[in-house]
Amino acid sequence: MTDQEKKIKTRNVRKKRRLKYIAVLPSLVTLMNGLCGFTAIVFASRGVDTMWRPNLLPKVNISFFALAGYIIFLGMVADVLDGHVARISKSTSSFGAQLDSLCDAISFGAAPAFLMLKLVEAQSQYLNFESVRQTLLFGRLVYLSAIIYTMCAIIRLARFNVENVENKEDESSHLSFAGLPSPPAAGMIVSLVIFQQDFLPKIMEVPDKSPLHILQTATICALPIITLIAGLLMVTRIPYPHIVNRVLRGKKRFSIFLLVVFTLLFVIWNIQIAMVLGFFVFMLYGLIRWLFMPHKSRKGDSPPNPAP
Q1: Which of 176, 247, 250, 304 would be 297's cystine partner, CB 3.0–4.6 Å?
Q2: Using an 8 Å Cβ cutoff, are 206 and 212 in contact?
Q3: Are 119 and 223 contacting, i.e. CB atoms less than 8 angstroms apart?
C-alpha cells in the first residue's frame, strides 16, 4: 500500500469518527449537572462572611457555603435524570456517557473538594492549635486531602468509562458499582458542610463555650479526613449497589415501598440530618458488606453479580 493510499484511508477513518448527531434533551440535562458544579465553585469562593439574601425571599438568610452544597445536590438530581431521560427517549450514546463523566468530574470531583478547602480555611481561626507547626500541619492535610479526592474522582470516572464500554451489554453493570460512586462520595462532604453551615446555627443561639460550638469545630476537623476516606473509597473495588435502579425499577416487596415512604418523610422533616445519615449509612453499608462477604466472592477485580 502506497503512502497516498494510507493517507486516504486515514482520512476516511477520521470522517467516520466525526460526531454528527447528539441527543439534545439528555445532553442539556447533563450540562445542567456541570453548570451546578461550576456555580457551586463560584459560591464557595465568596466565603463564610457573605450571606445570600435574595430580594424575592427576604426571610432567606443562608451562607454561600451552604448554598454551594445545595447546588451540588441539585447537580446530583440532574445526574440521576439524564440517564433516565436518555433511556426513555432511546437516545443513549457514547457521547452522552463521556459528557456525563466530564460533568461529574466538575460537580462531584472539583466542586466538593474546593468547598471543603474554602470552608476549613475560613473557619481555621476557631481551631485552637498549640503551635504554629500544628497549624501548618493541619493546613497541609487539608490541601492534601482535597488534591487526593479530586484525583481519585477523575481516576474513578475514567475507569468507569472504560469498564462501562466493555460491559455495555451486561445488565449487572447497571445494578452495582465497583468502588464508591462519585455522587455519594461528594454527598458525604457536602452533607457535612450543610449540616455545619445551615443546621447547627439555626437550632439555637448559644455562647462559644457551648456543645454546639464544640460540634461545629469537630465537623471542621472531620471534613478533611472524611474527604480523604471518600476519595480512597472511589478507587477501590468494593461493590456498592445502584440504589435508584435496585429500588425504583420493576416490582418490589411492600416492605421496600414502606421504607421508601418513611425515607421521604424523614427527608421532608429534616433534610440536613437525612442527608448526613443517608450518605454515611450508604458508605458504611458497602464497606461492612464487603468485609463480611465470603472470601471467594471478593476474589478478582470485578464486583460480584448482584442477586435478582
Answers
A1: 304
A2: yes
A3: yes
